[in-house]
Write a structure and sequence with these properties.
Helix 1 runs antiparallel to helix 2. This protein has helices at 2-33, 94-121, 127-130, 148-152, 163-167, 186-193, 256-290, 303-315, 319-337, 345-364, 379-402; strands at residues 37-53, 56-71, 125-126, 137-138, 174-178, 181-182, 198-206, 209-224, 235-241, 244-245, 249-250. A hairpin with a 2-residue loop joins strand 7 and strand 8 (209-224). The strands form four sheets. A five-stranded antiparallel sheet has the order 6-5-7-8-9. It has a two-stranded antiparallel sheet with strand order 1-2. By secondary structure, it is α+β, with helices and mostly antiparallel strands. The chain starts with a helix and ends in a 6-residue tail after the last helix. The protein contains eleven helices and eleven strands.
Length: 408
């Protein structure tokens, strides 16, 4: 129980640090361009303490659920003093304002990458997402099995070699093609082999060289869980196998970890974008779970739910899962915050570039620049989006309290 509480608190602290650094990204970039930053605070609500350095007030507030960076003149509607007016943010060039507005999300991306890099050089990165088809182990033999235990611990007979061992495959070989078809991941290799039997050409990368081997694929019985009845007895099916195992984790040194973490980051970006596109269609399942329905593990979670999962991961000793979850949350917040919707940073970026394109078109027509956008005309749309966002947050928090997603 103490480990669970420690995990929840640690994950929540990680989120607070991420948000604080998000706002720091806005502040540092704004100061670099000469904009006036009035205040930088961590948290909301009543003030705990503050101090002033130069022209900026720094402080902490009691509710650690966010933070803010007050830049003078973020929009033309903001009131500025006469001495602030020349340094008002809206007066700066479009590209400078874009960098300042995007700096928060970029900070999240950097944080996510740093977490993955540290994982890569210490405990390794999970291969489940990258799917590298590099052989970790070659079995002594393969045979029919009706249980998972029999698959993992085969009873080998003298001279009964696994096809991979008989054909010359070695740990460290990377399978790049099966039967003339390229295999980018170990899932591709498995899918290609399963319906096969008999001699098959394998192309592997060994010590930087491509090697062709002929492997006699064996058809054996294996237990397979029915996805429509996961609690039922597994079905016994015939599948092709060669007797190799792929690594659960990929390990790197300090240099190669840059590429490994970069590749993993790209895959997580793709998955984050997919989850965002699926977000609206999964909301009904969240509502269903609140009223007693089974909670789909693929439904959105709030910060509360993510912290609970983080606590369970620590309690179970699954630190890689804890760190992956923290990295993925940073990527999600960063991408979400760049959506072109007010009051998100992406909405302000969209307005900034609308002004730039509009003034360019007006210039082609011989007209003067149109000036800053009147945000009061966008207030109704902004309020609707705030209400929708608040409702979704309330739904996910409620679901994470009454029917949370659990690791077990």
């Amino acid at each position: 129980m103490l480990a669970y509480i420690f995990g929840v608190v640690l994950f929540a602290l990680g989120i607070c640090v991420s948000v604080a650094l998000h706002e720091a990204g806005h502040m540092v970039s704004a100061k670099a361009f000469g904009m006036k930053v009035r205040r930088y605070f961590i948290g909301f609500g009543p003030k705990v303490f503050s101090f002033r350095r130069g022209e900026t007030e720094y402080g902490v507030k009691w509710i650690p659920l966010g933070g803010f960076c007050d830049i003078a003149g973020m929009t033309a509607l903001d009131e500025v003093t006469p001495d602030e007016a020349p340094r008002a943010m809206w007066r700066y060039k479009t590209w400078k304002r874009t960098i300042v507005l995007a700096a928060g999300s970029v900070t999240h991306f950097i944080l996510g990458f740093v977490v993955l890099y540290l994982m890569a050089v210490s405990m390794g990165l999970p291969n489940a997402l990258i799917g590298k088809a590099q052989i970790a182990t070659v079995a002594d033999c393969v045979h029919n099995a009706t249980t998972d235990q029999q698959v993992l611990n085969p009873t080998c007979q003298p001279g009964d070699l696994a096809p991979a061992k008989q054909g010359g495959l070695q740990p460290g070989d990377e399978i790049v093609a099966v039967g003339g078809t390229a295999t980018a991941t170990y899932a591709d290799v498995t899918a290609k082999i399963q319906p096969m039997s008999g001699p098959v050409d394998f192309e592997v990368k060994r010590n930087g060289q491509l090697v062709h081997l002929t492997i006699n694929v064996a058809q054996v019985e294996r237990p397979v869980t029915d996805p429509n009845n996961p609690q039922g007895a597994p079905k016994i099916v015939k599948v092709g196998t060669i007797g190799v195992g792929f690594p659960s984790y990929l390990h790197y040194n300090a240099w190669t970890a840059l590429g490994g973490a970069g590749m993993f980051t790209g895959d997580m970006f793709a998955q984050t974008w997919d989850r965002l596109l699926e977000f609206p269609e999964r909301i009904p399942a969240v509502v269903h779970s609140i009223f007693g329905g089974e909670r789909d593990p693929n439904t959105p979670v709030s910060v509360v739910g993510a912290s609970r999962i983080g606590g369970e991961a620590v309690e179970a000793g699954l630190w890689p899962l804890f760190l992956i979850l923290l990295a993925s949350l940073n990527f999600f917040i960063g991408v979400f915050n760049l959506l072109p919707l007010l009051p998100l940073d992406g909405g302000h970026i969209a307005v900034t570039w609308y002004e730039r394109v509009r003034d360019w078109v007006r210039g082609l027509r011989g007209k003067a620049a149109g000036g800053p956008v009147d945000y009061t005309k966008l207030s109704a749309i902004t309020m609707v989006l705030v209400l929708v966002g608040g409702a979704v947050t309330l739904l996910t928090v409620t679901a994470d309290i009454v029917n949370p997603i659990r690791l077990q």
